[in-house]
Amino acid sequence: MEKQALTLEQIRRLAKKMYAAGLHELELRNESWSLKMRFPEPCGPINALAAPVEKTSFALRAPMPGKVLLAHPCQRTAYVQPGQQVRHDELLALLKVGPLYLPLRSPADGRVVSIDVQQDQAVEFGSAIVQLEPLDAVSVTL
Prior knowledge:
This protein is mainly beta. It has 2 domains: about 1-40, no CATH class; about 55-140, CATH 2.40.50.100. Helix content is about 10%, strand content about 35%. It has 1 helix and 10 strands.
């Protein structure tokens, strides 16, 4: 059987499908094969009639494999610090993928709880980068 490498476009499509399905990890092996897929644990009532659980914090995750830059490559000034309040769409970090720098932006108004990676750390798809805590509409004073 002939070996074929996956193209970058095929890897991107697979990553998008994994993300849409909520799949956190996919492990493939060889030598008589093994396939391991991991989904996140459900974190609330599964019953549709149950009261919704309010989320206390959430993570900004890597959209693809790359190297995280927590500070501007030339200025070395950190984009955010733990405890800092951020607005929706504010730049939190960069993800270097080959020669490209992808902005990682805040998905909502919130407060930075923690930064889970180091400067220039390599991350995989779905890796947590920054933990955020949503802010009440009343307490937002930026």
